[in-house]
Amino acid sequence: MQSLFICGTMCSMVKTREIYYEDAYISEFDATVLECTRRDKGGFSVILDATAFFPEQGGQSSDIGVFRMEDGSQIPVSHTSIRDGVISHITDEGIEPGSAVHGIIDWEHRFSNMQQHTGEHIFSGIVNSRFGYDNVGFHLSDSEVTMDYSGPISDEDISRIELATNEAIWQNVAVRCEFPTDEELKDIDYRSKKELSGQIRIVTVEGYDVCACCAPHVLRTGEIGLLKVVGCQNYKGGVRVSILCGKRALDYLSGCQKLVSDLTGFFTTKSSKIMDAVTRQKDEIFELKGRLSESTDKLLKYEMEDLAASSEKDGVFLVRDHALEGNDMRKTANAITERFPGLSGVFAPAEGGGYRYILASGSAGLNAKDLQQRLFETFGAKGGGSPQMVQGSISCDNISEVIKWLEEAKV
Ligand SMILES: [Zn+2]
Fold first, then answer.
1. 379 assigned to some structural domain
2. Number of domains into which the chain is organized
3. Residues 6+ apart with CB under 8 A from 234
4. Residue 354 included in any domain
5. pLDDT tens track for 65-77
6. Are 205 and 118 in contact (CB under 8 A)?
7. If we measure between CA atoms, which residue out of 298, 370, 383, 369 comes closest to residue 335?
8. Does 125 lie in the same domain as 89?
């Protein structure tokens, strides 16, 4: 099977003709299969004489799409990569060398990448001209677009650059991509993300940026539509900025708008009053938690006095019917050991099932760890602690069985 698809060898392959450099807007093309090899990782690697599929490179994810075959069937292309100028298309099905294919790029995906990438050029060009910082890291995937700049930028300045970038978009200026000669290149002052070799491609956003870049871009900045900064964090002495352009920006803002709309309904208030409502609710919760804690402490005190008065035992094991915060578990254990000299404990339901427990030693100074060890052996409990206090979890269907065992075991 494998040999059927191999023709020639990679090292003798001629470079693939890159249709995306002739015109970034070509989304369909005809080509001939030169080679098809089965990949160790699964699927096939298909090499054509020419392609409009842009391969993954320079921090940008690859084009995806389909090959339409002469019989009308379609073979999906899930990834595209380049090595020594030869472009490989990853498919699930093998294709006989010599076959004609009609390549169709997922245009929505490609155009989105062109919008994100050109938006990044304008933003980085403005950062470079205003602050002198370089874009030292670029990442463009289907879920995020990030740029790493070599120096710090304040939030206020990020907002100013965002506005200036959008103004450049609204001016709808031309974006030119060209391969200058070595002689011409000497006179061009351009940004570059890394040391480049081979023929340099220069992308110029008129009045905003001149940068060496290999990816497809839009022809005029107006096609970017909108650039929105959605994140900014300190990163390696500089700053990492996350942006979204075009439909991705619109989808993001629609999500934000929906959230605000839901919150105005939830709090029955205007959008401008949401933060007031959230702050008020937070303050109320804080106050209620304080009052609940006071009431719980009082209740615990009465409960302990009742228990101490009615019990002849030197220790008790309480089971709560609802989950307790770690602090409440400890408070309860401390309250018991203040009144009972022996070994005592408290159990409360755990979130994922079973129970959380604390076992504690009173004034008689018995070793809680010994009892815990026996709990491990008998019921498969887990946990740790000191001779005075141990805690952990136990998965059991019938907690009263455990309590009955504990009351007998500690004697
Ligand atoms: Zn670019």
1. yes
2. 3
3. 152, 240
4. yes
5. 999 999 999 999 9
6. yes
7. 298
8. no
H helices of 311-392, in order, are 326-339, 368-379
- Report H helices in 2-106: 2-5, 19-22
Tell the residue number behind the tokens 């974006």, with chain if given. Answer: 175
Say yes or no: 235 and 325 in one domain.
Answer: no
Cα-to-centroid distance, 361 and ligand 1 (Å): 69
Quote the pLDDT of residue 143: 85
- If asked whether residues 346 and 370 sit together in one domain, one would say yes
Report the separation in Å between the CA atom of 53 and the middle of ligand 1, taken as the mean of its atom positions: 16
Distance 214 CA to ligand 1 centre (A): 6
Q: What is the CATH number of the domain that holds 397?
A: 3.10.310.40
How far, in Å, from the CA of 119 to the mean position of ligand 1? 9
Please tell me the distance between residue 122's alpha carbon and the centre of ligand 1 in angstroms: 10
Clarify whether residues 119 and 152 are in a common domain.
yes
Quote the domain boundaries for residue 374. 311-409
Cα of 117 from ligand 1 centre, angstroms: 5
Please tell me the distance between residue 215's alpha carbon and the centre of ligand 1 in angstroms.
Answer: 5
pLDDT tens digits, 135-169: 999 999 988 999 999 999 999 999 999 999 999 99
* β strands within 165-261, DSSP E: 175-178, 202-205, 209-212, 227-235, 238-245
DSSP letter at 232?
E
Residue 15 lies in a domain: yes
pLDDT tens per residue, range 18-65 = 999 999 999 999 999 999 999 999 999 999 999 999 999 988 899 999
The rounded Å distance from CA 63 to ligand 1 centre is: 15
Write the CATH number for 197: 3.30.980.10
Is there a contact between 336 and 372 (Cβ–Cβ < 8 Å)? Answer: no
DSSP letters, 280-320, are HHHHHHHHHHHHHHHHHHHHHHHHHHHHHHH--SS--EEE-
Q: How far is the CA of 67 from the centre of ligand 1 (A)?
A: 26
CA of 219 to the centre of ligand 1 (A): 12
Q: What is the pTM of this model?
A: 0.78
- Do 119 and 254 reside in the same domain of the chain? yes
Boundary (domain end) residue, out of 73, 105, 137: 105
Token pair 């702050």: residue: 279
Please report whether residue 281 resides in a domain.
no
Here the tokens at position 324 are: 């307790």
Let me know whether 165 and 242 are in one domain.
yes
CA dist 292 and 287 (Å) reads: 9
Residues 11, 97 within the same domain? yes
